[in-house]
Amino acid sequence: MWLSEMPFAERLPYTQKLIGYIDQNVATEEGFSCLGGLKEIVPCYNAMLLEAYGRLSLTESRQAQAALRWIKQYRLWGRG
After folding, report:
1. Model confidence pLDDT, tens digit, residues 28-65
2. Cβ distance 27 to 41 under 8 Å?
3. pLDDT (average), residues 8-24
4. Burial of 5 (0-12, 13-18, 19+ CB in 10 A)
5. In a 3-state reduction of DSSP, which class is residue 51?
6. Average pLDDT in the chain
7. What pLDDT shows up at residue 20?
8. Does 69 have pLDDT greater than 90?
9. What is the Cα–Cα distance from 59 to 75, expressed in whole angstroms?
10. pLDDT at position 53
C-alpha cells in the first residue's frame, strides 16, 4: 500500500515484482484474497489492494476489475 503512494512507483523493479506476486498468489477471478482462495476474500483486504492498484494505474487490469465486481456484488449498499 505504501508503495502505491509514491509517484511513478509502478515503474520500480521491486514494485513490478510485488505486483507479479500479487497477481499470481493473491488475485483470484473474484477479487483479492488474503490466502489466495475464493473463500478467503475479506472486504477490507480486497478494497485495500484495489485502491493500491488504482494508485499504480492498474485499474483496467483483470485483477482490479474482478475486485471491483466483487465489491459491487457483496457490498451492503443499504447501510447508509
Report:
1. 999 999 887 888 888 899 999 999 999 999 999 999 99
2. no
3. 94
4. exposed
5. helix
6. 90
7. 96
8. yes
9. 19
10. 96
Task: Judge whether 58 and 10 are in contact, CB under 8 Å.
Answer: yes
Which residues does residue 32 pair with via DSSP β-bridges, in sequence order?
A: 27
The β-bridge partners of 27 are: 32
Cβ 42 vs Cβ 1: under 8 Å:
no
Number of neighbours of residue 16 by Cβ within 10 angstroms: 13
Rounded distance between C-alpha atoms, residue 31 and residue 72, angstroms: 11
Burial classification of residue 49, based on how many CB atoms lie within 10 Å of its CB (0-12 exposed, 13-18 middle, 19 or more buried): buried
d(CA 6, CA 23): 20
Residue with cell 494505474: 57
Length of the chain in residues, anyone? 80
- Say which residues have a Cβ less than 8 Å from residue 67's Cβ, sequence separation at least 6: 27, 31, 32, 46, 47, 49, 50, 53
